[in-house]
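Key result, reporting period 2: structure in, sequence out.
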């Protein structure tokens, strides 16, 4: 995930003298990390986990830290959240005997090492530790894991849902929807509709209802056969993505990348010239497949242009998140093409 404020400047809105971002034609980016810290502090601090059940008393104390990156991009009213954060939460526990006398008091921590928009449909890993690992301490730790984990994950799901709705930018978006239109706004809108954004990538095209087509042109400083070989080699995929991959090199063969998050099969292969795939992401609705077409052109030795045409990409995943097209496009650009350039030195 690109760091906040370090995205492609051609897609980040420059401030106008009047402060306007007409129709959000450019990306309007909001840093959400401070808001994220406040969100989790309010929702996870001083939570009662157990209040005497089994003579155990457990409460969360406070959120110790929220590290990482979080932002919300808005373009033409569409919300695209991005976040990769880790969270640390302290907790305390007390065990009593049948007469109410304290047997042991302990402190511990809850660690969530990775909360990411790319895994928004999956619960993150939750680690629970306790400073006293004796028998009673272990009992309190197990109780915190059994009862506290679900409460913590509920708050994480609330965060994911709120970010999908715009996070701290939500109120501003709602206000814009309710604001009355005037002749000045209409004039600005007309101007914005004629504005051209200078990007190398071709604009998305409309496909069948509920689906989109992504097209991209990407330049690499290498021979076409070399980048074709990379895209057809599962060991290089593993190195590029730092995740498991399985690649068949035959038409009709299957492939799996990003630990199985993306799967499909090969429909057509021409060495150094063409790759056509049936392609789907695991969070897409059942039965929905897209088609990827990668055409390799070598206008001069040592320079290769790849034209990507990705058709029938659904606008929403099975959970109703309307960020599928943006996330898919960003994945191709940042997690595949730019990674290949960086790892193999094929130029940026």
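The corresponding designed sequence is given below.
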């Amino acid at each position: 995930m690109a760091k906040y404020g370090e995205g492609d400047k051609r897609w980040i809105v420059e401030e106008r003298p009047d402060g306007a971002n007409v129709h959000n034609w450019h990306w309007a980016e909001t840093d959400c990390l401070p808001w994220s810290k406040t969100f989790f502090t309010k929702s996870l601090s001083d939570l009662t986990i157990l209040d005497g059940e089994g003579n155990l008393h457990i409460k969360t104390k406070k959120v110790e830290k929220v590290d990482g990156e979080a932002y919300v991009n808005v373009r033409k009213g569409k919300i695209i959240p991005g976040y990769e954060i880790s969270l640390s939460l302290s907790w305390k526990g007390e065990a009593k005997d049948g007469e109410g006398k304290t047997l042991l008091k302990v402190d511990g921590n809850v660690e969530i090492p990775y909360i990411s928009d790319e895994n928004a449909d999956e619960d993150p890993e939750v680690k629970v530790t306790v400073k006293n690992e004796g028998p009673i301490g272990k009992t309190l730790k197990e109780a915190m894991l059994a009862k506290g984990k679900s409460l913590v994950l509920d708050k994480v799901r609330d965060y994911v849902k709120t970010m999908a709705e715009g996070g701290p930018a939500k109120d501003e978006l709602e206000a814009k929807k309710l604001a009355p239109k005037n002749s000045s706004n209409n004039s600005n809108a007309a101007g914005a509709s004629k504005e051209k954004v200078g990007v190398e990538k071709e604009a998305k095209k409309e496909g069948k209802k509920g689906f989109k087509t992504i097209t991209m042109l990407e330049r690499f400083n290498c021979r076409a056969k070399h980048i074709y070989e990379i895209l057809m080699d599962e060991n290089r995929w593993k190195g590029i993505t730092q995740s498991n991959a399985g690649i068949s090199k035959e038409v009709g063969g299957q492939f799996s990348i990003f630990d199985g998050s993306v799967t499909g099969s090969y429909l057509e292969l021409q060495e150094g010239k063409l790759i056509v795939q049936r392609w789907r992401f695991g969070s897409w609705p059942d039965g929905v497949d897209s088609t990827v077409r990668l055409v390799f052109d070598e206008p001069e030795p040592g320079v290769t242009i790849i034209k990507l045409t990705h058709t029938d990409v659904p606008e929403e995943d099975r959970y109703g998140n309307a960020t599928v097209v943006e996330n898919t496009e960003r994945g191709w650009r940042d997690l595949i093409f730019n990674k290949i350039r960086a790892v193999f030195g094929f130029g940026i």
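Residues 135-164 form the longest helix (30 residues). The chain has a mean pLDDT of 83. This case is discussed further under Risks and Mitigation.
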